[in-house]
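queue> holo job accepted (iron/sulfur cluster)
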Amino acid sequence: MTRYGMVIDVDRCTGCFNCFLACRDEHAGNDHRPVSAAQPAGHSWIKVQELERGSFPKVKVSYVPVPCLQCTDAPCMRAATGGAMARRADGIVIIDPDKAIGQRDIVSACPYGAVFWNDVENLPQKCTFCAHLLDDGWTEPRCVEACPVQALVFGDLEDPTSDVARLIAQKPVEALAPVPAEPPPVRYLGLPTRFVAGEIVLGDGSEECAEGVSVSLRKGQQTFTISTDNYGDFEFLGLEADTEYVLSIEHAGYERFELHWNSSADPNIGTIVIERAG
Ligand code: SF4
Ligand code: SF4
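queue> job finished
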């Protein structure tokens, strides 16, 4: 039995919005009942969120495409009444365009903002994985076909030879926050994590970039150590959110530097001047 799923590789996504436009092209003004009514002008059922972290000049920008995740235990389905929502045998969650009229609670029940309100039809609407195309023999939705960098990988989760099943078996895929108890069929690679960055300068009057200085990051009993590059820059990626960290800098002939902080944000520590010992 087929069960559709998708892996979204955030590291690959360039934020080109081709998926967003392909969704509009497929659905705007096109009625695909029984799986979806026509999408109104200006809507798209896949969002591409731009997330900026850090501060100048240590800034990172990520693009996170968010379609309906076709949740395994779907809060939107619990909010629907009168048989307005159902899950197909292939796992796709469908809003019935005739039975869901007036049911705004379906929009607010989705924790991912994946349900959109059609003011003209008085109807909640969302991504269907282009179920009407899959039923016609297509192997992937329009957004997946439109992605120029294969950031969206789609297929049958029950087929161990499919690209999507292989990715999930081989890579550390994650669920989008808020993380549900049961993994959804749409999962992610490379979701943005906290980072810390800075640069080190020698405080001996030369103000030279301190290349090859040992910088350590400690969390509990774990310590990670790297060396600054030839611009004196350092960067630690993949930090856990809201966690206590200690950054320490050691360089022969110079005073030890130590900084304690909580990773509730992505701090750019800026320029750290290390002073000569003694
Ligand atoms: S992502 Fe939102 S709309 Fe889609 S199944 Fe989950 S709760 Fe429902
Ligand atoms: S088409 Fe692909 S690269 Fe472009 S925004 Fe969508 S997922 Fe990202």
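queue> The mean pLDDT is 95.
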